[in-house]
């Protein structure tokens, strides 16, 4: 019954696969920033794969990371089902700055669209909110798992 | 159960309810055993687990380009395993078709079905990629009206598609009967319901009314989650110079459902020991989350290991607003 934990386990499995692929690659980055990017990328792919294609954000995330990664075959291996034909038009994150109430709903929805991967492709506000909701839950999964990993690392004193 | 039926009957007759409430009452009336995940959701505390169990999260294929004609032979509800109750409701509804056929009721009914199936589907999360499930969802989506007509025409879910029936709408007192405005009303109610979901999901959203403010909160939350992920991946990249994970070890561990074994901290470091650590500690951490209280969730993780670092304040602020 515990679907949240099940999602987490799914995510972990997929993420481990990704990390292993990353690890076995020849060009494993030694620089911290590179490593961080690789970890982030792998985790994004894994979380999108866990959601696996029935939401806009997961497909957009896959296509976006597919563009960025130097190893498209890695992404393809993990994501057997996700054949995204959606062009990724998601740009960089826009900081909200000082939105006051008078700016209103429109600007905020645009900002939300820029945050949620694939959000810009959604016209219907109704669906945008649904996507955001789903995306939030999966973000939480990612955060929880990563936090657990990080905690483990400190506990074991792994360095 | 009787009391429930009477109560819902009373609800049905009242004219001052929102359409959604009316629909729910209607469904309850006909399906007294049907457990309303939405109702349960609103009465519970906003736990992640409970929330995930509710429908509306597992988003169906909304963006399928094909507006699938319902009652397509390939789509007819043959996967009875998943949609058994869905079928049941359709047939039952069919017999009651004569009385009060509000259009919104039908749409809401379908929404309920969809949500119920979403809930079931969510619980079998590994079957997400089940083709038949996807078909069901596609069918649910745009072709609600066709589905209504279908169930009107025949006594069981059939394969023909006929748009012969008009959908009769019962307007509320003092509101326009214009089809556009009714559709608009439905849409608005859906949106407001979703906003309610989001309120329960995003911490600290209860006090805020109005779309702009809530959207603000949602945006902040998404941004902070994304930032957390950045921080965490940076942290992970610092702490683990080499990620050496033994797959077999992990999968054997996964068989164990709820391990409560305590790992002595002096256990192995890199290599297979690492995976052992990770998985078991992972499960260790999962267990408190199970009972949880999402608010105590991250903090318990922190307490298990380490001194909180700078970025933890970010998280603690976030969860502090939950109002523990």
From TrEMBL, chain A:
Which domain of life does this protein belong to?
Eukaryota
InterPro entries in UniProt: IBH1-like, IBH1_N
Segment forming the signal sequence? none
The UniProt entry's coiled-coil ranges are: none
Entry keyword set: Transcription, Transcription regulation
| IBH1-like N-terminal domain ranges (all copies) | 5-64
What Pfam families does the record tag this protein with? IBH1_N
Question: PANTHER family given for it?
Answer: GENOME ASSEMBLY, CHROMOSOME: A10, TRANSCRIPTION FACTOR IBH1-LIKE 1
Q: Supply the name of the protein.
A: Transcription factor IBH1-like 1
Top-down, what is the taxonomic lineage of the species of origin?
Answer: Eukaryota, Viridiplantae, Streptophyta, Embryophyta, Tracheophyta
UniProtKB/TrEMBL annotation, chain B:
Any single biological process term in GO: regulation of DNA-templated transcription
Molecular function per GO? DNA binding
Q: Record keywords: DNA-binding included? A: yes
Q: Gene3D superfamilies per the record?
A: Helix-loop-helix DNA-binding domain (4.10.280.10)
Pfam families per UniProt: HLH (PF00010)
Q: Where is the BHLH domain?
A: 175-225
Instruction: Keywords in alphabetical order, please.
Output: DNA-binding, Nucleus, Transcription, Transcription regulation
Q: Where in the cell is it found?
A: Nucleus
Q: Which domain of life is it from?
A: Eukaryota
Keyword flag ATP-binding:
no
SMART domains for the chain: HLH (SM00353)
Q: Which InterPro entries match?
A: bHLH_dom, bHLH_ZIP_TF, HLH_DNA-bd_sf
Q: Where is this region: Disordered?
A: 106-157
Give the UniProt entry's GO cellular component terms.
nucleus
- The name on file for this protein is Transcription factor bHLH63
The organism's taxonomy opens as: Eukaryota, Viridiplantae, Streptophyta, Embryophyta, Tracheophyta
């Amino acid at each position: 019954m515990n679907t949240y934990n099940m999602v987490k386990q799914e995510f972990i499995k997929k993420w481990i696969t990704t990390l292993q692929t990353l690890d076995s690659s020849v060009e494993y980055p030694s620089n911290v920033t590179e490593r961080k990017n690789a970890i982030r990328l792998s985790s994004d792919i894994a979380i999108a794969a866990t959601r696996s294609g029935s939401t806009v954000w997961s497909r957009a995330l896959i296509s976006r990371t597919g563009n960025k990664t130097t190893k498209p075959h890695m992404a393809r291996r993990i994501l057997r089902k996700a054949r995204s034909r959606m062009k990724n038009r998601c740009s960089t994150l826009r900081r909200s700055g000082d939105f006051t109430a008078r700016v209103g709903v429109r600007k905020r929805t645009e900002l939300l669209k820029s945050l949620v991967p694939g959000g810009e492709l959604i016209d219907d506000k109704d669906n945008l909110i649904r996507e955001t909701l789903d995306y939030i839950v999966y973000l939480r999964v990612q955060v929880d798992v990563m936090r657990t990993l990080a905690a483990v690392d400190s506990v074991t004193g792994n360095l | 159960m009787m009391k429930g039926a009477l109560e819902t009957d009373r609800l049905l007759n009242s004219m001052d309810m929102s359409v959604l409430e009316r629909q729910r009452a209607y469904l309850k009336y006909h399906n007294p055993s049907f457990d309303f995940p939405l109702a349960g959701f609103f009465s519970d505390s906003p736990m992640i687990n409970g929330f995930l169990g509710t429908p509306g999260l597992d988003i169906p294929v909304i963006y399928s380009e094909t507006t699938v004609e319902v009652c397509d032979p390939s789509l007819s509800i043959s996967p009875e395993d998943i949609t058994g109750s869905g079928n049941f409701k359709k047939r039952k509804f069919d017999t009651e078709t004569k009385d009060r056929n509000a259009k919104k009721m039908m749409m809401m009914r379908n929404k309920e079905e969809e949500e119920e199936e979403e809930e079931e589907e969510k619980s079998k999360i590994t079957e997400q990629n089940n083709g038949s499930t996807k078909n069901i969802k596609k069918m649910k989506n745009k072709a609600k009206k066709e589905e209504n007509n279908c169930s009107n025409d025949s006594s069981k879910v059939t394969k023909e598609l006929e748009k012969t029936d008009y959908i009769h709408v019962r307007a509320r007192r003092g509101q326009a009967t214009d089809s556009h405005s009714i559709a608009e009303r439905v849409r608005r109610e859906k949106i407001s319901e979703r906003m309610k979901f989001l309120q329960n999901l995003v911490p600290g959203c209860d006090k805020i009314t109005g779309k702009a403010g809530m959207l603000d909160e949602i945006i902040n939350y998404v941004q902070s989650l994304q930032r957390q992920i950045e921080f965490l991946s940076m942290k992970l990249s610092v702490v683990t110079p080499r990620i050496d994970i033994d797959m077999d070890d992990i999968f054997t561990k996964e068989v164990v459902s709820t391990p409560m074994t305590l790992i002595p901290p002096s256990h192995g470091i890199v290599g297979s020991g690492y995976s052992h650590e990770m998985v078991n500690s992972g499960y260790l951490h999962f267990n408190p989350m199970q009972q949880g209280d999402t608010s105590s969730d991250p903090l318990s993780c922190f307490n298990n290991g380490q001194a909180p670092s700078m970025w933890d304040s970010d998280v603690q602020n976030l969860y502090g607003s939950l109002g523990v």
